């Protein structure tokens, strides 16, 4: 006997969107999640809340000329689709660009979502107009960051819960998709013991019972693999990036465990492009961790000097904020799994932002006063950045370069960094600052960034000499590889129907969000443009919730 029309496995953003859309249609929905109620929303809660929108009013007010055509060119140049199984991912990519250039902003705005007026320029690319990267700023920071992105959908879900159309079952861990006559008809699994852990902390896996639920449609929205380093290393693309890092930090909580991927495969679903993933190179260990091995990503402006473990400066396009996977490969090619920023207090003050809703209380609180005080009129960096500078084990501060290099070498217990070599490189860079033109690619990039008034206002420091004591103190930051997103996933069509090994839809079985590679099994291809992770959860959850093929 059916207990609902639809069962959704996973209470993250994609699951919330799908549930809200389904209940709007009058469907009776059960959402199950292995975590406690306090975890509702999943990773979205911890995010910075960035969304990729195209030709938005915010862009136009900042003097940005964007279009569907330019965005699609950027997406395809970044995705570099090259496999037969990329047919559906390509269709999903085109559909998302249409959505982001069309109804997306108005739909979200009508639900109460708002955005910071300065549009961010993330992932600036690898150097060619036809290649990877955003030609223009497109990163729209949601007012309220991750919680602000989640809130409109959670509100809709709670309203439907009150009306009896949605039932939320926490601490219910799915371990099996029930298949009968080739169709999904329900799920079964274990009831886990109650846990009062705060959101994001690791919870117990003590089993206190079991359950079985039946419905003619099952939607898997369980997220990716970034919290399980063993799965990350198992899927690591050694042929493209080299061996997986020996040491990493976790950019997502432990519950991002990828369990439902294998369970979906056992039900007939097909995992594609699992070697495509998205990890960052600017991770620092959280001095006040929430989940195991908790890392925070520095969102850098373009001005910090970037060196490998032996003190060699990275060439373009491996500049801060330009080409995440290109920089990752360049780091791993050195035989080490870390690198260094050498920077100044002036750069840190204007250019260092930190990922995560909890690291951005001014945006999270929707406080214009705090934003202006901390990011425009500030004499220091934001309080969160200054806390990392003071307490973070990956930060060192010094008044002179020899003292700084000694502290950096001391952090690693070696003498790989040569003070003379690094001083010569920084002096050569500093000599390029006296003119409004330069042969140094990073200096050229800084000039270009400051031509955009959003960067000039709050994200790119005025060019200055790093070794001038007036710009100090000097700051060294050890950068770790930080896990984040799964770009491949379960193969789906545009209705979010899961496809079997022959490409045929499996009756009653759907997937959305990161577990589906945000759509189709990998709509990013090899590279992401940023703002497309939360955006992909919203879009694919909406597609699933509106699918005519759902019961």
Structure description:
With 551 residues, the protein is an alpha+beta fold. Helices cover 33% and strands 20% of the residues. It is built from 19 helices and 21 strands. The strands form five sheets. Strands 10, 12, 13, 14, 15, 16, 17 and 18 form an eight-stranded mixed β-sheet that branches. A six-stranded mixed β-sheet has the order 5-2-1-9-21-20. It has a three-stranded antiparallel β-sheet with strand order 6-7-8. A hairpin with a 5-residue loop joins strand 20 and strand 21. Helix 1 packs parallel to helix 6, helix 1 runs parallel beside helix 19 and helix 3 runs antiparallel to helix 4.
List the main descriptive attributes of the protein structure presented here.
globular; alpha+beta; single chain; 551 residues; 19 helices; 6-stranded mixed beta sheet
